[in-house]
Write a structure and sequence with these properties.
The chain is an all-alpha fold and about 80 residues long. Helices cover about 50% and strands about 0% of the residues. The chain has a domain of about 45 residues. The longest helix has 15 residues.
């Protein structure tokens, strides 16, 4: 026997509110300004700041580091597009 038989199913509601295009652009504008103020650091310093081992920081964060990725792209004879 179904204990919830006879009850109406609640209306579906989104769990996340979407931004309007204007709000999204405003968010990106302010986020880019804030992220641009960070000082680049080595993987070892990053690991120390996060409380991780350098090997863990290397595994997770070198994909975002141009210092480590640029030589790989140049070795392939390609230029990675620069993120503005």
């Amino acid at each position: 026997m179904n204990p919830i038989a006879g009850y109406e199913k609640p209306a579906a509601t989104p769990r996340v509110t979407a931004f309007t295009p204007e709000e999204e652009q405003l968010l990106y504008k302010h986020a880019n300004k804030a992220f641009g103020q960070f000082k680049p650091v080595s993987i070892e310093v990053l690991a120390g700041l996060l409380g991780n081992a350098p090997a863990a920081a290397w595994r997770h964060y070198t994909a975002w580091s141009n210092e480590y990725n640029d030589p790989l792209w140049e070795a392939l004879g390609e230029r990675k597009p620069k993120v503005a």
